[in-house]
Amino acid sequence: MFDLLTLLIAFALISLLSRRLSYGIAVVIASAVFIALSNAQDFIQILIKALTDEMTINLLTIVALIGILGYLMQKTGETDGFIRELKPIVKKQKVLLPTIPMLLGLLPIPGGALMSAPLIDGVAKKLNVNSSGASFINVWFRHTILLIFPLEPTLILVAKLTGVNMYSIILLQIPMFVAAVLVGYLLAIRRLPGKEENGNGSAWKLLLNLSPIAVVILLNIAGLHLVLSLAVGIALSLAIGRVKPRSVPYTLFRGLNFDLILAIGGVMLFKWGIESSSLLGLIENFVRQSHLPPAVLLTVLSFSMTFAMGMLSAALGIAVALFPYLVMGNAVYASLLFMSSFLGYLISPLHLCNVVTLNYFRENLKGLYTKLLPSALIMLIFSFVFLALV
User: Fold this and answer.
1) What's the sign of the alpha-carbon dihedral 264, 268, 273, 274?
2) pLDDT at 198
3) Inter-residue contact 237 to 280 (CB < 8 Å)
4) Which of 65, 77, 155, 220 is the most exposed place for a label (fewest CB within 10 A)?
5) Measured between alpha carbons, how far is 127 from 195 in angstroms, rounded to an integer?
């Protein structure tokens, strides 16, 4: 129970400290406080494990490369070119605003909201959307498409773990996808001015400016490691932008976001701290002793675990292990597991997309939560009721 209290203290610290300090520093401090209070004797060991863990190194490398690619596309004019050519095609700026993160949501990378953030920034400013609104739009619409995207890794994972056909789950989640888009539209888009773009967009120029991102996606889908795929995308961006060879090292260095890298390190430290505490044991005991309906337990536990961890895959695996009799071979419960886990993950302070979005727009957690929390709650209730009626 004490570990649960320390977890709540850590989350409160993130919220409070991020108002005055950078989000990365706030997460690192909160992670250190949580580990010091819950597992002080193993603090150094947990720190070493977190920093040397293959997943941590991989994440740090990927996010660093994403930052470099995003910076390059901005400096070489590819970002502006993409927006310039897409605007006449989409016409309405209020439609363009959610379209950009939704399209880039198809890029299955941790912290990928860092790519869409600079792309929607200019459009948001033209429509007088404040930083909290832009942060919500970037996070929310980036993730709605993942509910029905057959290449989404966690959707594939749920299907494999439960033995349910993935397309059966996707079919059930089409109404959730439509509802999520509608919720986001009503809360953040509907009242924006209907400004339109004039002129004709060039499909060729659009593809050229998008090619560094497209190449990363295609190579990664084809099986190339994401780090290598990003390296190819960066090389292509350098070539398109005709960056002089002697300027390459300095340009790459400028693309590194050290505060963001610090934040990612803090997130992984937090993850290791939770796994080293007694929290998972407490959850297991609660499931055994509770007399609540299994569907309610599955929803609450899945939502809570992903919120606490900021990691979707691990929580999904734990939930399936705790409720095999409920989710195995059952598409409805498999979808309920995915939706509740997904929404808890979506609003977690440790969710990498939230971290990078807050970092880019210089917004605090409270500002993001203004629209994100009610949206997630509406979707959680809608998903539970809809699946109960199927």
Assistant:
1) positive
2) 64
3) no
4) 77
5) 8
In a domain, 115, yes or no: yes
| pLDDT at res. 267 | 75
**Residue 332: helix, strand or coil by DSSP?**
helix
What three-state secondary structure class fits 340?
Answer: helix
Is 192 within the bounds of a domain? yes
Contact 101, 137 (CB under 8 A): yes
CB 387 within 8 A of CB 172: yes
pLDDT digits (tens, 9 = 90+) for 223-250: 888 889 889 999 998 998 888 888 888 8
Q: Which domain holds residue 142?
A: 55-152+173-260
Rounded-to-integer distance, Cα 131 and Cα 125, Å: 9
Q: Which pLDDT belongs to residue 118? A: 84
Burial class of 4 by CB neighbour count within 10 A (0 to 12, 13 to 18, 19+): middle
Q: DSSP 3-state assignment of 355?
A: helix
Structure tokens at 362: 């210089």
| Cα dihedral sign, 290-296-300-306 | positive
User: What pLDDT score does 287 carry?
Assistant: 67
Q: Does 305 reside within a domain?
A: no
Give me the residues of the chain with pLDDT under 50, please.
Answer: none
Location of structure tokens 């832009």: 134
Question: Closest Cα to residue 333, out of 320, 343, 317?
Answer: 320
- At CA 303, angle to CA 301 and CA 304, rounded to 5? 65
Are the CB atoms for 78 and 312 separated by under 8 Å? Answer: no
User: How many domains does the chain fold into?
Assistant: 1
Residue 375: predicted pLDDT? 98
The pLDDT of residue 55 is: 76
**CB-count exposure of residue 199 (10 Å: 0-12, 13-18, 19+):** exposed
Q: What is residue 139's predicted lDDT score, i.e. its pLDDT?
A: 96
**Which are the contacts of 69, defined by CB distance < 8 A and separation ≥ 6?**
115, 212, 213, 216, 230, 233, 234, 237, 255
**Cα-to-chain-centroid distance, residue 358:** 12
Q: 242: burial class by Cβ within 10 Å (0-12, 13-18, 19+)?
A: exposed
* Position 75 in a domain: yes
DSSP state at residue 186? I
CA separation for the pair 351, 296 (Å, rounded): 24
